[in-house]
Design a protein that fits this description.
Structural class: alpha/beta
Strand order of the largest sheet: 2-3-1-4-5-6
Strand content: 15-25%
Largest sheet: 6 strands, mixed
Number of strands: 6
Number of helices: 6
Bound molecules: guanosine-5'-triphosphate
Distance between the termini: 31 Å
Shape: globular
Radius of gyration: 20 Å
Order of helices and strands: EHEEHEHEHEHH
Length: 211
């Protein structure tokens, strides 16, 4: 049995007015609320079932208020990050990229997961950030990418949170496996050997794939 913490800490980051609170509250209550007080950070504690085995996982979501703070403490605190920009605000996209850069520097060498989320895609007519450039940034920082509208769709917001949570969960599980059970080079090589028949008598002369 593993004895690691059954908790995931998510930080919601992004420029002011991109919809950080709208997305957080939409996920937690399924409702879209147009205006929020944004003078303080809010920490929400919640229990969710997003895995096939239906074991509830404790999550903490920190909805930050973008008051010009550096976020350093928040970045050190969190295991995973929802980095939000608005598809109608280019500055917020550049800020999301800067935040991903900062997270990757501050979290090294520890593992973290991140999802870059373009919000307000109901405002397609005013779009200033294309999907392809956002995809490129997400590839550069090895994070997931999605676009949603907190105003129009609960399911998109739920998908974003659950994709992030699933990735975070599987990385936690993998890191807590005993070393000999992790899929190392040897076991990858062995698995490929099985697939390509390296170990079967009939195929011994087949060129083997070495890693
Ligand atoms: N059209 C549209 N408006 C949205 C959407 N999500 C949020 N908004 C609006 O955007 C504004 C900012 O939303 P907030 O959730 O307060 O944004 P925030 O990032 O938490 O703001 P700060 O705390 O000030 O940084 C509000 O007027 C929301 O109603 C969306 O998906 N579509």
């Amino acid at each position: 049995m593993t004895n690691f913490s059954n908790k995931i800490k998510i930080a919601i980051l992004g420029r002011h007015q991109v919809g950080k609170s709208a997305i957080t509250v939409r996920y937690l209550t399924k409702r879209f609320i147009g205006e929020y007080s944004s003078a303080h950070d809010f920490l929400y504690k919640h229990s969710v079932n997003f895995e096939e085995n239906h074991v509830p996982v404790e999550i903490e979501i920190l909805d930050t208020c973008s008051n010009g703070c550096s976020y350093d403490d928040v970045i050190r605190w969190a295991d995973s990050f929802l980095v939000i920009y608005s598809i109608v605000d280019r500055d917020s996209f550049h800020e999301a990229e800067k935040l991903l850069k900062k997270i990757s520097k501050l979290k090294l060498p520890s593992y973290y997961t991140a999802l870059m989320l373009g919000n307000k895609n109901d405002l397609e007519h005013s779009r200033t950030v294309s999907v392809s450039e956002a995809q490129e940034v997400s590839l550069n920082y090895n994070c997931q990418f999605l676009e949603v509208s907190a105003a129009e769709s609960y399911s998109g917001v739920q998908l974003a949170f659950h994709s992030l949570l699933k990735e975070t969960r599987s990385s936690q599980l993998h890191r807590n496996l005993p070393i000999r059970r992790k899929l190392g080079v040897n076991s990858v090589s062995k698995a490929l050997g099985n697939i390509f028949g390296k170990n079967s008598k009939a195929d011994r002369k087949r060129p083997s794939l070495s890693i």
